[in-house]
Amino acid sequence: MTDLPQSPPKTSRWKTFLRSDIVWSYRRSPVTVVASIVAFLLIFMAVFAPLLAPYNPFNPATLNLMDGFTPPNSSSMGGRYFTLGTDSQGRDVLSTIMYGSRVSLFVGAMATLFAMVMGVGLGLVAGYVGGLWDAVIMRVADVQLSFPAILIALLIFGVARGIIPPNQQEGAAIWVLIIAIGLANWAQFARTVRGATMVERQKDYVAAARILGVNPFIILLRHVLPNVVGPVLVIGTIGLALAIIEEATLSYLGVGVPPTQPSLGTLIRIGQQFLFSGEWWILLFPAITLVLLALSVNLLGDWLRDALNPKLR
Amino acid sequence: MLAFIARRLMQSVIVMLVVAFIAFLVFRYVGDPLANLLSQDATMADYEEARERLGLNQPFYVQFYHFVVNALQGQFGVSYRLQQPVSQLILERLPATIELAVASSIIALVFGVFLGVYTALKQRAFSTGVIMTLSLIGVSLPTFLIGIGLIYVFAVELKWLPSFGRGEVIQIGWWRTGLLTQSGLRSLILPAITLSLFQLTLIMRLVRAEMMEVLRTDYIRFARARGLSSRAINFGHALKNTMVPVITITGLQLGSVIAFAIITETVFQWPGVGSLFVNSVAAVDVPVMAAYLVFVALVFVIINLIVDILYFIVDPRLRDGAKSGR
Amino acid sequence: MTTPVLSIRDLVVDFPFHDEVFRAVNGVSFDIMPGEVVGVVGESGAGKSMTGSAVIGLIERPGRISSGEIRLKGERIDNLSEPEKAKLRGKRIGMVFQDPLTSLNPLYTVGRQLVETIRAHLPLNEAEARQKAIDLLTEAGIPKAAERIDSYPHQFSGGMRQRVVIALAIAAEPELIIADEPTSALDVSVQAQIIKVLKKLCTNHGAAVMLITHDMGVIAQTADRLVVMHHGKVVETGTVGDIIRRPREPYTVKLIDSIPTIERKEGQIAAATPANDDSAYVQVKNLVRDFELGRGSFTKLIPGKVEMFRAVSDVSFSIPKGQTFGLVGESGSGKSTCAKMIVGLVRPSSGHITVDGHDIWAGGAGHKERRKRVQMIFQDPYASLNPRWRVKDIIAEPMRTLGLARNKTEVEHRVAELLNKVRLDPSVMRKFPHEFSGGQRQRIAIARALSSQPEFIVCDEPTSALDVSVQAQVLDLMSELQSEFGLTYLLISHNLAVVRQMSTSVGVLHNGVLVERGPTDAIFDSPQADYTRMLLDAVPDISKVA
């Protein structure tokens, strides 16, 4: 009969992993493979910018106005070669992009992490405890979700500016930005985790633990949390792309990172000034980098959702 | 039905009060309201007098009460930056924003629903793959980049359409419209497309996902087993069921278009409420920020109410639930 | 010789999955004659539903018919184009699905769905179609059909909805009805009526029936002939009486043998020794549980009249040590709520539960005693094991939580011992639940329940998610463990046959009230309450084969 204990096929854990659905769908999707390579390269470039960048664009000593407005793939009047050209102050566009991606990624990742911790925590509580806690948390999340994240972030940013004394604003700007974007994005995590938690809470393995008298906190942490990780990963990935875009938008609007630490959004804002006068490269290369970054992360998120949710395929 | 709407109205009032409270906190405690009102060389006595006159010495709840009463009459004080009443500033710019938002909502809704249904029904078609890939690129493109790109192609290179502003406007009562002049309409095209693209992709993906979910249900299988035509199944049975969840999310998405216009208005220098808000945030112009928050919340609440009523009309199960007093 | 309505020859249905192909139906052949009711029976994964889907042309992608023939009244239909197949559906082949709650479109009235179907196939105008719809509903046993035709599906009960579904399937007078588990989602008492309606309508309209089910009892009462399927193949075909009384193939013999019956079998557990209620090991006294009816969390803050629903009303019984008490009831009878109160998941509104003299809801000591002595086995073995935990950790959780094992080696040793007890190889402890079949999972769940060394186990529908042959094995295992460890069981089930086999005494729960209780044989052989009699009459059982 089918029910007799079958001797397990002797395969290594690595082989089991390679045969799993996720790996299978990864190998079957060339787009995903390309996206993951692009994302990896961009992240690598950003993380190791200080080592990889040909110039340090923020060291005034090495800046030379003679290098200004050098077109891509040519040498400046100052005699130096720039792959992607220079901006009005003679900063190497390639290097500013590398440093800029670093800022964009840092803000995006930290904000997503912040949103994730807050959203997952509140979502678990709302879904597991239920009752009034659930009602309050989810009502707040609902109202907030109906406002675009960018508006929330702008508001928080404006409020923070009003509260923080002017002389500390520059140093705090990045953290304000991270908190603003994080606070704007937590609700998505909370809503998803709450839904998943309510499903898991009804399942009998949780009842089995409750019968034993396992502490509710331990049940949440050891039983429920591991089972809601899938959707959190998906939202986290898509949320990272979203946070990067939001940061770029805020910086583009001129309320984001300080000008001394330009992110991709700041670079685009600067570049736009020269679009009409023909220095297109100052705008185009940061813009391409931003889109590639957001698109590759989004593609990974999209694939992850399909891979973790085979019935949607 | 009436009881249902009354209940929703109650909830809306609560939401508005909460938002008003947040707006009040911002208004009252961010920055120093007096510093912006009085001149640099005002004396302590001037301060005291101003405090008394503005009611800043009164208890917290009295101040909040006054804030709500004033807000109900449309009074949000005077802008620090522009030295004009906030309500006047917003009203002046409102028509521009509403025209932009409505135009892009229509684009997003029509194309979003159509493409969503199309890609759900033709799941394996090549065109579906193309549309889905494009939509993912659409989600990954920041709105401001789309705007810049459109400006570059259609305004700078092709010189077909204007790159900024509203063009000629015509005054009808207090409403200043750009819809009645040729230059006004031409000016609307690029901003409306820019603003709609993001919503369009979202609506499309949502409709597609819901429709595919519905197509997998038992009652669709049963409808097939009864030999109904695929037309009747897809557009009679499946589409109507798809609409139930789609209405909510789409409604809220469209509500957010108003606030989403912030970016588009900045890129195209569109003289609307959004660009007013961005400039106010940069200048910490608190009364405008507070008023804008209340304004967006009002739009959200109204749309929410419309969505609830629509829901009620579409889904018979809700009608019964309401009858039994739930 | 008459041509069969349906003739299937060497049908093969394949499902490509990843890089492999799964063969769901593997060379199936059988015929259905006009007016005949043919039961297709088999356990899950036997390919019986897939055969039905193939006949009506609704195999879901990526599945496909790889070879073989399907003929309807002699015409080949498996190779028709999609539009031609669509024309057959409803018109010549009707279908009834398992779950009446999801088979109807919730947004349209029943009448609209009927009229739409009738007009798609028959040349009638709106008014004529509507009249026909009303006639069909009346025929299907829906009272006041003319009034109810404009109701929405959610305004009907499950049983009524299934009548509507049957009316829809027969609406265009098809020659063949495929009924895929038409009663499996329904309660026993409704089940019998629905089977009657299905049979009556098909006879009246001259349709042959292909009745797909896992429930041999349903087939025994309904079908003329039987097709037994296993692993995508036909194992045995014959008349129902022949197969049930004289099965030939080893698989069929085993299958028939593992089906429990409500008839008393030889060598069954002796009747309960009349125990003094006050000294019994488990005592449930005047148990009551009320639930508040639908109110939002915010509205709850506003005081006001609260509508209450009494799920369990004044239930009392006792179980002597080492015996099994069977609690029988249909869905909504309150039997699961009882179980939850007894294991400490739901607080009773009033009443007492004592286990070995400790009131388990008294807090403090009672709570501690409950954790030590009471365990539970759940219905769905897919939901009762945490999918992210290894078997070892699942089984070890109770002993770790209660501090029953001192160190890692001891835990591992005990887990291995428990796995042996439930007839699983100890080497499986490093695997995850998804690597096991349903029956194996239920064994793991039993091992977990035993891990805290309990004396009393509440079994909530322990086998109703399992195939019959697996069910027999799990029940056997439960009996063996009971005698080995002297366990006391509370067995909760809707399956009367299982309860008869396993219990020493029985209680019958109906709408939260315990209508009858007593020794098993007394209840089954001479039921006193009307409800019990009705249940026993309604239950489809293989002993009732015509």
UniProtKB/TrEMBL annotation, chain A:
It is found in: Cell membrane. This is ABC transporter permease. Gene3D superfamilies: MetI-like. It is a multi-pass membrane protein. GO terms for cellular component: plasma membrane. Coiled coil: none annotated. CDD domains: TM_PBP2. Keywords: Cell membrane, Membrane, Transmembrane, Transmembrane helix, Transport.
TrEMBL record, chain B:
It comes from Devosia riboflavina. Gene3D superfamilies: MetI-like (1.10.3720.10). It comes from the Bacteria. GO terms for biological process: transmembrane transport. It is found in: Cell membrane. Residues 94-311 form the ABC transmembrane type-1 domain. PANTHER family: ABC TRANSPORTER PERMEASE PROTEIN, DIPEPTIDE TRANSPORT SYSTEM PERMEASE PROTEIN DPPB-RELATED. InterPro entries: BPD_transp_1_N, MetI-like, MetI-like_sf. It is a multi-pass membrane protein. It holds the Pfam family BPD_transp_1. Its main location: membrane. Keywords: Cell membrane, Membrane, Transmembrane, Transmembrane helix, Transport. One of its GO terms (cellular component) is plasma membrane. CDD domains: TM_PBP2 (cd06261). This is ABC transporter permease. Belongs to the binding-protein-dependent transport system permease family. The chain crosses the membrane at residues 12-30, 100-121, 133-155, 188-207, 246-270, 290-314.
From TrEMBL, chain C:
One of its GO terms (molecular function) is ATP binding. This is ABC transporter ATP-binding protein. InterPro entries: AAA+_ATPase (IPR003593), ABC_transp_ATP-bind (IPR050319), ABC_transporter-like_ATP-bd (IPR003439), ABC_transporter-like_CS (IPR017871), Oligopep_ABC_C (IPR013563), P-loop_NTPase (IPR027417). Keywords: ATP-binding, Nucleotide-binding, Transport. Transmembrane segments: none annotated. One of its GO terms (cellular component) is plasma membrane. It is found in: Cell inner membrane. NCBIfam families: PRK10419.1 (NF007739), PRK11308.1 (NF008453). Residues 6-256, 282-536 form the ABC transporter domain. Its main location: membrane. It is a peripheral membrane protein. GO terms for biological process: peptide transport; transmembrane transport. It holds the Pfam family ABC_tran.
